[in-house]
Every structure is written in structure tokens, then in C-alpha cells.
Fold these 2 entries.
Entry 1:
Amino acid sequence: MPENEGVRTDGRTPGQLRPVHIERGWSKHAEGSVLISFGDTKVFCTASVTEGVPRWRKGSGEGWVTAEYSMLPRSTNTRGDREAVRGKIGGRTHEISRLIGRSLRAVIDFKALGENTVVLDCDVLQADGGTRTAAITGAYVALADAISWAQSKKLVKHGRKPLTGTVSAVSVGIVGGVPLLDLCYEEDVTAETDMNVVCTGDGRFVEVQGTAEGEPFAREELNSLLDLAVTGCAELDAAQRAALATAL
Amino acid sequence: MPENEGVRTDGRTPGQLRPVHIERGWSKHAEGSVLISFGDTKVFCTASVTEGVPRWRKGSGEGWVTAEYSMLPRSTNTRGDREAVRGKIGGRTHEISRLIGRSLRAVIDFKALGENTVVLDCDVLQADGGTRTAAITGAYVALADAISWAQSKKLVKHGRKPLTGTVSAVSVGIVGGVPLLDLCYEEDVTAETDMNVVCTGDGRFVEVQGTAEGEPFAREELNSLLDLAVTGCAELDAAQRAALATAL
Amino acid sequence: MPENEGVRTDGRTPGQLRPVHIERGWSKHAEGSVLISFGDTKVFCTASVTEGVPRWRKGSGEGWVTAEYSMLPRSTNTRGDREAVRGKIGGRTHEISRLIGRSLRAVIDFKALGENTVVLDCDVLQADGGTRTAAITGAYVALADAISWAQSKKLVKHGRKPLTGTVSAVSVGIVGGVPLLDLCYEEDVTAETDMNVVCTGDGRFVEVQGTAEGEPFAREELNSLLDLAVTGCAELDAAQRAALATAL
Amino acid sequence: MPENEGVRTDGRTPGQLRPVHIERGWSKHAEGSVLISFGDTKVFCTASVTEGVPRWRKGSGEGWVTAEYSMLPRSTNTRGDREAVRGKIGGRTHEISRLIGRSLRAVIDFKALGENTVVLDCDVLQADGGTRTAAITGAYVALADAISWAQSKKLVKHGRKPLTGTVSAVSVGIVGGVPLLDLCYEEDVTAETDMNVVCTGDGRFVEVQGTAEGEPFAREELNSLLDLAVTGCAELDAAQRAALATAL
Amino acid sequence: MPENEGVRTDGRTPGQLRPVHIERGWSKHAEGSVLISFGDTKVFCTASVTEGVPRWRKGSGEGWVTAEYSMLPRSTNTRGDREAVRGKIGGRTHEISRLIGRSLRAVIDFKALGENTVVLDCDVLQADGGTRTAAITGAYVALADAISWAQSKKLVKHGRKPLTGTVSAVSVGIVGGVPLLDLCYEEDVTAETDMNVVCTGDGRFVEVQGTAEGEPFAREELNSLLDLAVTGCAELDAAQRAALATAL
Amino acid sequence: MPENEGVRTDGRTPGQLRPVHIERGWSKHAEGSVLISFGDTKVFCTASVTEGVPRWRKGSGEGWVTAEYSMLPRSTNTRGDREAVRGKIGGRTHEISRLIGRSLRAVIDFKALGENTVVLDCDVLQADGGTRTAAITGAYVALADAISWAQSKKLVKHGRKPLTGTVSAVSVGIVGGVPLLDLCYEEDVTAETDMNVVCTGDGRFVEVQGTAEGEPFAREELNSLLDLAVTGCAELDAAQRAALATAL
């Protein structure tokens, strides 16, 4: 692709994110809730706070944060079976739920949280690539609101700051030899290499998961993907801060 | 409640529906999709069309319509476990999925549909009473759009009309001795009698499910509940028609 | 059907029940047990009393009553798979178990029962239509015997009456345009409308579940079905009383 | 136990069976059906014939016979959970189902049966020890009736005899040092050694399953138990023949 | 087979065991561990000791011993599905796990063991007939080592001897009319009668499980199989003692 | 750790692998089989070849390679429940099985393999950190043997080379601020950052999965971990080649 190298099907440049929208307060029940969209990917994230922690953590004085991810059956182009109907959760769902939970725990001070549990539910309403990265980015905002709620309700002790930083995530990949930021579904299925990167607001890494879908990838390719991801996460971090700056 | 008998917590009169909103085209993937709200109850309904029918119906020349209902874990005031995580579907979910499927099949001519299947997915994003009736009412609109799509794609033979009528549903109940239309959650939990009624547009019944939650109910009470439900369904029928009258 | 309108395949008139037999004391182990038959439908009902209640009810001072319904694999004309072998309970089984439980709870004073639990097991040995209504009618008798047992064992406090009334159930339906009482299987599969009605002994309603299997049904049809059901339940109530009048 | 050695709680002598009753034709649907009782143990056995065989046997020209055993939840003194509700079949149930199937296959000529399948369902209505041996003994009679039915319907070719013999089963055990035939529950739980023996009508063995519940058992003990079992099975064989000698 | 009657495919005489190898200490984690082989059958047995007992045994002062058996998917000639992937344990696995547990409990004094639990895991790495008998024979050795460990750690009170004897197991069967000891897979599949016998070191029986795979078997055949099994178990007992005689 | 920075609990230098052993031909049944150890971590890998492919791939002319990973219950310091007994596979197991499958598919030419399936089973016999990387490294050798077998049996067409390269894997992590190669369990649980890297023999990447267990990690840390991993994989590649160079 000599001339218009990097011009993407939706007109973006290689290093450009899709439009990001973050709507807080989408649920009247949840302590934190966000509808986030990365282009046509829409994920509904709720944060549920309960007093107490799982049995294995009782008496530790420390809290817990966990996550569950799921796709609505028709969030995709072809309807998928419900996991509840199949009676078991698939490997991909497990993997992504675990990734989201780990990513958010990276910015939590469990001592400061005290023996409270926050469950993040990330349900994909519409999928167009990048559902796990949108889920992490949105779940962070829901989590921040839930923690503010817990502070206001005195579930968290005065002066304690359970959130130690911010976290966001983005996908990157190599398509037709070109490193691209924030792949849409069409790009994702043709990518030679696909990577999901989770960063804190200070540009350090929480997770780096790169997979060669076709050819193995070289160290330089990995480097250029990481460069893209770091800039993408910085933009998402700004979007999160902007969303949280307004009153609920 | 002598003086303001029938004045409800949200200010409605006994025979008044909550505000109803029907947004079509909420999914870019599904052949029909609707976000319906009855007050604070919000249900996302998608209709997925596939060629072919389940094995037991093959070669019959007839189509099939079925439904699956589910609540997101934090659609309720307290977070509920995911059925996929528990590994089985609860009795209530089964019951409501079956009710939605039967209700919509009541207005389908399977011969006219031909060997095509429509699956209605009704996922409750936020619950405040009446989720099953909102699901039926919204799913009808998604089904109507899906059938138009199937006609435009020639999956349904020219001139055939798979939809034989319209269908909507509403809850009624007796609270503090007063028959009320369209119960919100707060009313639902205190109702002595609770009834869900599914009507066709011509005012006939598809389903009548009445349950005494406390005292058994008398024939006259049943009659006044049915009267309320019939007027409520007529209003919902009008709302469905209005929604479908606009271009997608 | 002009001339012999209402003459049914088994010779009954439209408003006639099938022969009802109630045998108490069919199990040497259960606190209450009944083999009930509505014609060729035979259901074995046991009532099991245990001290204590489920966790969510502990300390409330109130008891609990619940039910489980199941069909033996060859209770039907064609053998069905065992739900234990399939590893999950089907929607219909769930729905009927819940219906039986709700119906019996309608005549229980939980405070008077105290923190005791009664489980009703209704296993269909032979099915010929109306299994859920026979189950409710038989389970009531087993429940009454179980409560007498609990009183005799002082599990229920002296002077307390946990049973607040009687309950029975019958199916009604419209077949060939004619409202019929207590449908056998052959009638059930051809019914345009099918309704199960649960009444207390004083003729009030505990559950009304009507379903249009083909055409939607009109208000007058609903009314004539309810009339039939009320007379049927009154006869069943008499049969229950007669059965309970004899010594065990 | 010096003086009245061998006088049992229910007055039987060590080598005496409990009263055996075999009622044929207990189901109007099944091709063969039997309600068998060994004292207070009651098992309902149905034999279901279907044309065709499981996939792995197709085209072999040979039939198949299999069995499923289950206990109703309140067949025992204390109510047990339903395996369908727990979502899995326990080891004991599996083991007994397999034993019943093997025992009946021992008297089947699969070539003569042709590509037909017989499923034996053995549901314990009331348990008082020896449920598996009563199940085998009753299932044989149901199987014999089902095969007669299949012959009458020409599912089995003219002149073919799928049944090659008869089969019955009995439990034996050592209680208080004394070998006993046909243990009731009370004896079973105190037995030092417990054995289930399945014999053909000519006195040969199909299955011998002996278990030391307490002390290991010596060769002479094993021998005296086998002696008892062989005489018990001969009596059961006679009871089966008597039951089958009458017209259905 | 007139002349070389009893000469087996692998050259053994009818009463000859395959080579038996018992390697102790195969795991650095387990309190007892053994890799046992009977010819090409290899089973890895670990014994895990934990303080405490299952809930139903708490406060009894008695310990518990249980076992789980499993085959690796490619331990057999054709790969089998993993039971974890199918989501349920098959009947054969259940049956064998229960047999191993019962066999080992036969030589345990639960009072002497105190409230400790030993779980025996028997995983078949390579199968060539006799996996359950190799598992029992190996598990005994792992159990003995685990109990020595528990004694050394003072989990078992000073002077107490939880092991009351030794136990081993072997298969026997009739192939081509000839009783054979320790069947390999090729012999097992063609055996007319198949028996698994579990003996204590003093030659008494813990379990005798004989099954006619084809023709029913006569009393004399049973006797000659038991004779073979008793001599086989005596040899296995010697092998176990030899293995345990060396330092770990 | 000023002076002996990098001296590890087992005496290794930071960039040193544990001793690696690869034994081929460990199963007489499987088409390829390997017992691999990385220090005390032992994984048994079998490769099973079957003709044909899963349904979704039929007629494509392309083969398939997949993997299943599991830990024996007592492969770890404390016994874990069997996933077959729990009735479902955990998230970690799913995740690792998928990783192994993807890693091996990276060096397969599916066209050259033709419509054949290879299943890699990786069962951990003893765990001491790095089980997934040992599994990938061993599975590659089993896969290579299985493909040689398929070529020798003409399942793969003459001249076709299904293997396009070699693949191995190693873990790296930061412990006490020092980047280490091939973490044992003790190091793994204290690592601040943990990364698994899968490389081809030419030093390119198939998978990079880095996780911050405590603090987020910086770009330079990531770089030094990747450096270590590349050298480790090169050594493992040499060990694989050496193992495959000998006759089976």
C-alpha cells in the first residue's frame, strides 16, 4: 500500500482512535455505571459495591475487586448462543473477565478500600472490535464513581484513597504490514498480529498481550505497536478524566 | 386510603401507564432491534433472523419464533448472580422466556413465514417492575422490523404476511385493595394480587396469568384487573403503531 | 359439532370431571403421602417435614413450603429423557414446580407453621393431561396429613393452625369451540385455549393461567372457562375433604 | 446370638425371602411395566421399545438393551435431593443403572432382537433394602412383556427369540456372624458383608458383587452367601414365571 | 487350545502376573506417592493428607479416606474426551473411584487415624487392562507412606496404628474357557467372564466383583477364578512389602 | 540485594534456565509423547492424530491443531479439586489451553497437514512454576513426532511439510527489582511482573503476555524481560532439536 498507506476503511490514520464516548450514570441502581463506546463498540459497565469480602479474604482488612464480561447474544453480526443456556462459560469469556479484573486491581489499594467488594459487570451491547479494551476503559470510570459513592457512604474510612491511579486499554495490531491503533472488527480479523495493552495514566504497563495471528512478529514490530498503544492510552486517559470532571 | 385513593407513589392514577418509549434500530447488527422503556424499566430487544428451522420442524414448510429473556446482573437494586456463572438458568427466567415466545407466536402465520427462524432476545438493562410485559411489547416491534427485513430480502415469499396481528402486554395488580395498571417495582412487591395480561390489538387475550400473592382474589377483582389490562394494552398497541409508523 | 355438542371422546359431558381417586398413606416413610388419579393421570405426592428453614428465612419465626414436580421418563406415551441424565431441569418442569409451591403457600400461615419446612414432591407415574392440577390437588392432601403429623409431634405449637384453607386445581379449555372441564391429553393437544385454575375451598382464585394455543380468546370465552373451573374445583374440594375424613 | 440364632427382626429365618409381589401392566403407555415389591421395597419398572439403535450400533443388525435406575426423593426415610436438581447423577445411581443393564443384556440375543432398543426404567417408589435386586427382578418381567409386544408388532422377526433365559437377583449378607438372605434396610446397614448376586434361571451367575463393610470375609463365608443367593434366585425365578404365566 | 493351553499372547502362563513395578516418592508435594505398573498399565497414585474431616464426620473423632480415579485422555489406544470438558464424570469412573475408596477403608482404623482425611488420587497414565487393580495396589503403598508421614508430624497420636492390614487387587477372567490371572487389555476384551478381586494380606476378601460378559458362569468357574486371584494378591502383597521395606 | 544480586534460591544466575529434560516415547499409544521437565515442573504431553477435522472446517482441505491443559489434583503443594468433579473447567485452565493451541498453530501449515487433526494433551504431573511454558515446549516435540508418524502413515501427502518452524516458551519476571529467567514457583509468587513469552526458533514472537502483579512496569523493564526471554527460548530450541535428533 504505497500511496495511501495507513488510510483505513473508516478513514482514520494509523494512529487514530475511533470516537470515544463515555456516559456516566446510565443505571439508577448501580453505585457506578457507564455506557462507553469506541466507535460502534458499545459496552455497558456497572460497578456494584457490597460490604464484606469473599471468604478467603475475610479478616484481612483488605477489599476485593473483580469483573465479569459477557456479550449479549446479538451484539455480534451473527447471533451467538447464550452461555447461560449452554450451561457453561467459554474460554474467551473467562479470559477477558480475568483480564478486566486484574487490570482494575492494578490501581487499587486494598487496605484503603477496607473489607468492601466491587464487582464490575461489563456487558457488550454491540461489538465492533476492541470490546475488552473498551470494557476496561469504561469499567475504570464506573469504578471511580463507585468508590466516590463508598467514600460518601463512609464505607471507606475518612482520608483513605482506594484508587492509586488511572487505567485504560487499547488494542493495536499489524494489518497489511502497517501498525494500527484501536482496530475495528474488520481490521481485527485480518490482522497479522493483535495486541491488547493496558496502561496506567503515567504510561506504565499493567498488561501486554500480543498474539501472532499469522506470521510471528519481530522485536521492531512489537516496539512500534507498544509506541502506538502508549499514545492511545494517553488519549483514553484524558477522555476518562474529562468524563469524571463533570458532576453526575 | 380514604381520600387520595389511587394516588400512587409516582403520582399516577390507578389506570395510568408509566411513560412508554420505543426506540427502533438500536443495534447495527440485528434484523430488528428496540430499546423499550416502561418508566425506569428498560429492555433491549433484538430479533435475529436465520434461514432454516430447528430439526424437529424441518421439511414442514413452516417457520419458528422463539425468545430468550435475561436480566443483566445489576439491572436490579441488588446485584444478582449471572446465570451463566451459576451454570444454569433459573425457573423464573425459563418461565418468562417461554411466555414471550408463546405471546409472539400467537401473531405469526408459520406457513407464511416459511422455513425461517426468528429469535427474540430480551435483555433487561434496568428493572423497575413489568420487565416481562415491556419485553413482549418491545419484542413485537423488533419482530415486525425483522419480518419487514426478511420480506425485503425475499426470505419470505412475495405477498405472504407472516404477521397476523399485533401483541402487547401489561401488568395489573391489587395494591392496598385498589386495582392498579402497570405496577412499578415498589407496587409489585406489596401487591396482594399480580397479573400479567397479553392482548392482541383487537382486544382479545393471548395470555392471562394471575397470581394471589397474599389473599386469594375474588371474581370481581379479577374482572376489574382484566378491564384495566385491556385499556392498558390498547394504549401500548397505539405506541407500537406510532413507533413503527416512522422510517427506520 | 351440532347434535352431540359436548359429548367427549370418553363420554363425559363438557362440565364433567374424570373419576378422581385419592389414596392416602401410600408411603411408609413420608409424613404425608397420596396417590391421586384424575382418570388415567396418576401422580404420587409426598410431603416431607423437616425442622428448620432455608438460610434466608432463619430467625424469622416463619416456616416454608416448596414443591418439586417431575415426570417419570415413561409416564408419557413416548419415553422422555430423564432431566437428571440431561443434567438440567427443563423450563416446563421449573414452571410447574413453582406453580405448585405458590398454590400451596396460599393456604399456609407461616407464623403458625413456625420454623419448619415442608417439601412436596409430585412425581407423575402416568400422564394423561392435567398432571399439574392433579399434583396440586393431591399435594394439598399430603400437606394436610404432614401438618397433622407435625402437630402431633409438637413441631407446631399447641393451638396453632398452619393451614388457613383448602386448595385444589383443574384444567379447562376450549376444544372445537366448546368449553370443557378437566381435559385429557387428547383434548389438551387440540385445545384452542388452555387454562389452569387454582381455587381455594371458598371459591376464590389463587392462580389463573390461560393461554391461547391457536386463536386469541375473547372475554366471554374466558368467563365461561372460569365458570367451569370454579365448579370443578368445588367438586375436587369435596373429594379432598372426603379423603381426609377417614382415619389414616 | 446363641438360642434364637437367625430369628430376624421381621421374624424371617436366615434363608427366607420377604414377600414378593409382581404386578404387570401397571402403565398404560409402556410396552412392559411392572410394580414389584420385596417386602416394603417397591420399584416401578417400565420397558420402552423403540425401533432403531444408538449410533455406534447402527447397521450391525443387533439390538440394544439399557437401564436407568433412580430413587424418588422421599423413597427413603429422610428426603434426598433430586439428582435433576443437583444437575448430576451420583456414583451409586450410575453404578446400579449399569448393573441392571448388564444383568438384562446377559439374557438377550441381540441378533434375534434386531435393530430395536429396549430401555428399562426402574424408579424406586419406596426403599427398604434390596432396591437394585428388586429392580433387576422386576425389570426382567417388564422386558419379557416388552419383547412379547415387539414380537406381536412384528418388530422382531418371526421365529426369533430375543430372550435366551431368565434373570433375577437377590442380596445376601452376614449380620451378627449369620449369613442372611434378602436383607431389609435395617439389616443392610449393620451387615459386616453385603453381596448382590444376579443369577439366570439355570442357577449360573451373571454378577457377583461382594463387599466387606467391616471385616474382610473368608472364603467359607463367601461360599455360604453364594449358597443362600442361589436358592433365593431360584424362588424369585419361580415368582417371575408365575407372574408371566397369567394373561395381561 | 489343546497343546499350549494357557500360553498367552505375551507368553505368560495362566497363573502368572505381569511384571510389577512400584516406585515410591514420585511426587515432591504429596505425602505419599507411587508410580505403579502392571506390565504396560501405569498408574500414578498420590495420597494427600489434610487435617480435618468432611462436615458429616466432624466431632466424631474419626478420620476419612476417599479416592478419585481418572484416565488421562490418551492413556488408551484411542483418545477419549476429558470428563472435565464434558462437564460430568462417567459411570465407570464413579464406580472405580468408589471401589478404590472402599478397598482402602477396609484396612483403616478411623479412630486411630483421628480427624484427618486422606485422599487417594489414581491417574492412569497408560492403560493396558487392570487399571483399577493396579490403582488399588499402588494406592495402598501411597497410603502407607502418607500415614507414616502423618505419624511423623504427630497428626496421628503416639502409639496409634491407623493401618490395620494390607490390601491389594488383581483381575482374573475366563478367556477361551481358560481361567487367567491379571488380564491385559487384549485378553480383557475377549474374556467371557471378568472378575476383580481385592484381598487383604491374610487372604481374606474385601471385594469380589464378577461379571459375565458373555455366557453366565458356573460355580466351579467362580471357584477357580477365586483361587487364581488369591495367589495373585499374595504375590502383590509381597511386592508391596518389598517396596515399603526400602527407605524413601 | 547489593552483593549477591541475582543469586537465586536455587543458586541460578538471573539469566539461567533450570535443567531441562525431554523424554520422547513415553506412551505406547500416542502418536507423539513427551515427558518434559523444567526443574521440578513435570508435564506429560501427548499428541493424538485423527483423520478428519471438526465440522466447521470440513471440506476446507485444511487440518486443525488444538490443545488441552490440565493439572493433576496433587501436582501442587496443596491438593486442588478436580475440574471433572466440580463439573466445569476453570478460567485459568481455559486460558492456558488456548495459549498452547495458538502457540503450536503458529508453526503449522494447515494446507500441508491436510484434513487431519492433532490434539495435544498437556497434563501437569508436578508443578513448580512455568507449567504452561514447559507444556508448550514439550508439546512441540510431541507434535513433531506425531507429524512424522502421520507422514510415515501417508496421512500427510508426500512432500508436504506441515511444520513450518519450531516453537518454545519460557517465563520471565521481575523479582526484587531484578529480571529473572524461568521462574520457579517460589519466585513466581513474589514477582512484581510476570511474563510468558513464546518464540519461534528464529527469535520472533508468537505470544507475549506480561502482567503487572504489583506495580505497573516501565518500558525498560519490559525490554530487559524480552531480552532474557529470547535467550531462554533459544536454549530451549536447542534442547528440542537435540531431543528430536535421536532415534525414537
Note: The mean pLDDT of chain A is 94.
Entry 2:
Amino acid sequence: MSTLPQAPKLQSFLKESSQRVETRLHETLSEPGSDADKLFEAMHYAALGPGKRLRPALVYACAEIFHGVDFDAARCDSSAAAVECIHAYSLIHDDLPAMDDDDLRRGRPTCHIAFDEACAILAGDALQTQAFELLLTDSSEPCLKLQLLQELASASGGRGMVAGQAIDLDSVDKSLSLEQLETMHRLKTGALIRASARMGALLGGADSAQLEALTRYAEAIGLAFQVQDDILDITVDTAVLGKPQGADALLNKPTYVSLLGLDAAREKLRGLHSEALNALETLPGDTRLLKQLADYIVQRSH
Amino acid sequence: MSTLPQAPKLQSFLKESSQRVETRLHETLSEPGSDADKLFEAMHYAALGPGKRLRPALVYACAEIFHGVDFDAARCDSSAAAVECIHAYSLIHDDLPAMDDDDLRRGRPTCHIAFDEACAILAGDALQTQAFELLLTDSSEPCLKLQLLQELASASGGRGMVAGQAIDLDSVDKSLSLEQLETMHRLKTGALIRASARMGALLGGADSAQLEALTRYAEAIGLAFQVQDDILDITVDTAVLGKPQGADALLNKPTYVSLLGLDAAREKLRGLHSEALNALETLPGDTRLLKQLADYIVQRSH
């Protein structure tokens, strides 16, 4: 560790990884061969709108620690774009009138408002497929490619993200225990964040202990992200958040803040942050970027 | 060809392949590990309700011709279940209020009526993922598995089935040319039927000329299926069809019958039937089952 160059800068890393994944998304959504222009416009709108690109950043960051500056980030582009496609599809469908019925996302009209509801449903459907197609065009050797596909599929489906969304919808006007709330978040947002880290680790050539450590790291920051979301939901106003303040509270959805109170929710956030940093300790290489990413998640203001 | 045993019987083949795929679907949807019971109930309801199981039958039938009675049909179960999952997901989403707004499908309430709209959207989403998961658990060797995944993905997404559905929705109250109508159907229903045949062919070990012949066969029966659907839509009553008679005509959607008239639509159907049979002529093995399947598609009454 003594020979490390200067600490990586999170902001420039996030900017670079965003640019990489946006370039790949733009490429894949602009390939010819479609007869459905409006559908692809809606896919573009949803996948390439403003966003933190946190999941793609995790793919790159978790791969890079095994290689340092020599790592060829291009090897991660398809995986990074794939996790962003799944994320974008889930947001389109979550925002639909039959689901959370949100008109605003990141300060812009949601997909079904900017286009129409049918088009939004289909754009979400096609972005899910596009995620798998991206991995299939990846240049990784067949067994690695299948591992990446497996990670993405098990995180996304009825035993992953979609299950979380189903539990979330059923929780309106119900009281969940802290354990049930945690299960919901581990599925709804945690599973894809976990898969992003694991896909990066696999691309970087992690052994099983390293894969396990990055999994623990990702599980902790995934949950921390959600706790911070719940805190921001009641402490930050609409203009900063890009969505109505108190939206979850208004829907009478259980949150960490409603179950624990604001102070204990902040305590929970600190605990998860420590867990994430602990998980990094067994890893070789320069993990400072991953530490900064964990710091960013608990400190972010929107 | 002179030593062939008695002609395969289509009805018993369809029954057997339906049973195989239903068993595989039931298994995969019953595996433990989900915390979202209602979601899986809706997935079961949609994927295992009454249906022709035409796409799975094509997978089995196209694989079998290269092996005859010695073929181990179990090798096709995951692919057969995967194409049925994609088909079931597409029907759930097609039936939604924002899309075709159908309350009845195969004589039963559609998924969003039997459950609710949010649950139906998610069940469709999760069935799409389940299709890819099924192929990933397949026992085929890695390169074949990747080929199967590629066939499924390119047939399903924004350059396949979903594009077809998008064009279909945009066609309401518009006049399409025959060419545009054909493009729509080749994407909306044709692409998955084509992929089913190609996946069967790949599982059976087809060479590239054989794969090409089965592709031509599937393209012809896929379009024939749709022409027959349009004919049935105006000639058969609701009780037999399991959906309201004249539904497409009421929605003012262009059909083969509205564009060509009933007689010319029937002529078109006969032409496609011939094309399918011609494509089979270059194939080795016993293609009588595929011939019977083509006959069934143009003669079916619901």
C-alpha cells in the first residue's frame, strides 16, 4: 500500500464512468434494425436521462481494484450498461400510474408522462431485454459471460428486484417490521447494487474470498443508500431531491425513519457505513475509491 | 424415408410437449427463495393457464427431427419453458388497460383482472427475467447456451417482439400498408415463433443450412398463424375463441382481412402453408410432425 499513487478522486471517477456507460448505452440504443422509433426514443429518454450512474460506477470500481491504473475499463462497459438498463426499466415501471404514480423523476417528467403509458410499459420491457443483449455481446469468454448473465438475472427477477417492488407495493398502509422492511430493500434496490459489485469483481478476476468481501461491501452500501433515501425524503425539499418531499410518507409507506425515528435511522446509516469499510479491509489493491464511494452514499444530499 | 415408423400423431405430440413444458414451468415457478407470494401466484396464473403451447411444441419438434425417437426431450425443457415465459409475459402486458385493455383471455379473466394492475405488470416483468434464468440453468454446454440466450434475447426485445407490439399500438385508427402489417406481425408474433424453431434446431444439432430451412419454415407458419387469427377474429364467435369476436375490428386495427378481404386472406394463408412445407423438403429425418403442425396452424378453429 505504501507505493500507491495519489488517492483517486471520486468525482472525476464518477464523471469518467458515467461518460463511459452513457457512450455504451447510446451506442446500443442507436444501432439500426428497429422499426419502432418512438419506443427507442422512450428507451433513450429513460436510460440516458440525468442520473447518478451509481451501479455502473460500482461495476468499474470493483473491477479496477484488482488491476489498478492498468485496467482496461472497456471490458466493463457492457456490464455497466446492462445494470443501468435494468435500473432504468425498473424506474419506468415503478413510476407508472398503477404503481407509484409519479409524474416527476430527477426533475423531469417520468417516461409515461413524456410519452404515454403503453409506450412506457414497452420501453421498460425492451430495456430489460436490452440488458441481457448487452451482456451477450460482451467480449468476455463464454463461462465468464454466463456468470455475468446469471448475476444479472438472479438479481433482477421474481426472487430479486421485482420481488422487492411487489413487497413494497403491498406495504402501503401496512405496518412492516424492521426485518420485513430490510428484506424489501435488500431485494428492491440491494439486489442490483450487489450484482453490480459482483459483476465488477468477476470482470476483475476476483477469487471467491474477494468476491465475498465485495458482496458484503455492496450489501452494506445498498442498504445504506436506502436508509439515506428515507432520511432525505423527510429532510430535503423537492427542488433539491427532484421528486416531491415526503412522497413515501404521504403514501403511508413504512420507512427507516417512520420505524426507527430520525436519530436511530442516522445511527443505522453509520453502522452500515462501518460494515462496508470493514468488508474492504481483507481486499488487496487500492480500495480507497470504494471507501470514497461508501462515504458518498451516506453523505449525499440528493 | 421408406423405413419410417408410423406417422407421428400431432395431438399426442402436442399433449406430451404441453405436459413436459408445464412440468418445467411449475418446477421453476415453485422453487423456494421468494418473499413475494402473490407475485408468483400471478406468474403461475399467467404462465400455466390454458394455452396451445405452440412455441414449446416447436422447440421440441424442431430438435426431434435430427434424432427421431432416440431424442432426449428433457434437453429441450428449459428452452421450451423459456419461450413460453416470454409469450406469457407479453400477453399479460398486451392485455393491460394502457395497451389492448382486455378483460378476457382464453376464457379466463386476464392477469390484471384476476390480480391487480401493478401485480400484473410485475408478473410480466418477472416472467421475462425467468425466461433468461431458465436458459441459464440449462444443462447445455456454454457456447450452445449462449446461442440459445442470444436467440431468445434478439427475438424478444426492442428489435423483436416489443417493437411489434409498439407498432401494433401505433396502428390503431391508422391505415397500414400490407408490408407494414407484415413487418408488425413478423416482429410481434413471428420473432418468438422463429426463435422457438431455431432454439429447437440448435438443441438438435442442426447445421447452418438446416437451421436456415427451419427458420424459413417458422417464418411462414408464424405469419400463417397471424393470418388465421385475423380470419378467426371475424368468422368465429366469442365462446369458441375465448375472446370477444371482432375485437381487432372494433379497435379499428388493420388486419389481413381488412386489408385484403376474406378470400384473399385465405389465399395468403394457403401460400404461407405451401412455403412452410417447401422449406421442410431440404431437411433430413422425419419431418411429418412439422408438416402436421403447419396443417394444424392453418386449419385451427380457435
Note: Chain B has one domain: 7-299.
